[in-house]
Each structure stands twice: as structure tokens, then as C-alpha cells.
Amino acid sequence: MKKKTYSPSQFGKDAEFITALYLISKGWEVKLSKGSRGPADLMAKKDLILLYIQIKASSKLPRIKGSAITQLKNKSFTDGALPVVATLQPIFSFVDHDKKTIINNDSINMAVKKKDKMDFKIYFYDLSNWSNMNL
Asked: I need a surface site. Which of 5, 17, 22, 79 has the fewest CB within 10 A?
């Protein structure tokens, strides 16, 4: 029997649910886009703040096309929402024994063998000024 592989599209769908669950745990009301249609994968609302969020996930560095950014910004500004990109990406930590410090993937990116266990972190970026958001 042939073993099924974990496809990039399934990983992307799972990233949307993980991000939604994370935001719900932080008190946000969340609505997922049906079939990931349109510029935002999900909408999140808390108090008077509305976020339109495009989610990118990868076992490497996630990428987003310029046209997707433009569409998300335009739709967000039309609807009075804040355009946000959320990335779900692996966390790499290494110990530099010479300096006795821990180095993480905020400063480096490395290839990982597919069989290695990876821990992931969600990062949120406000597309109005590309600043990191702590949600």
C-alpha cells in the first residue's frame, strides 16, 4: 500500500485552522474564507479592530506575491480593515558554544531534513507599514 504524502495545499489549509484557533484563544472572533477565495484567508474582529489576514506557511521561508499584497491592501482599505500577513514557519534554535548563546531563526534560515521534527511559530505583519504585530 502506498503511503500518502502531506501535500503543501493541505499544510496551507492546516495553517489557516491553526492561525484561526490561535486568534480565537486570544479573544478574537474569526471567520474563515470559504475555499480560500479572495485576498484574505480569514477575517478576525476584536472590539473595533477588523483584520483581513492572508496566511502563508512553509517549512522554509514563506513567500507572498506582490499582486496578492496589493489585492489584500485594496480590499482591506475599502472595507475599513487592517491588512495582515500571517506566516507559519519553523523555529530553528542552535547553541553557539563559543559565545554561549542561543541563535534562532529570527536571524538565520536553514534547510531541515524532511524527517526532522519541526516546531512552528506564527508571525503577524501589518501590511500598512510591514511592522511585526503581537497578537
From this structure: 5
Q: Is residue 85 domain-resident?
A: yes
Q: Residue 82's domain spans which residues? A: 8-130
Provide the number of structural domains found in the chain.
Answer: 1
CATH code: domain of residue 49: 3.40.1350.10
Tell me what the pLDDT averaged over the chain comes to.
79
Query: Which DSSP string do the residues of 64-96 spell out, in sequence order?
Result: --HHHHHHHHHHHHHHT-EEEEEEEEEE-EEEE
DSSP 26: T
Tens digits of per-residue pLDDT, 87-125?
Answer: 887 776 555 556 555 455 444 444 444 445 667 788 899
Residue 108 lies in a domain: yes
Bridge partners (DSSP) of residue 123 are 87
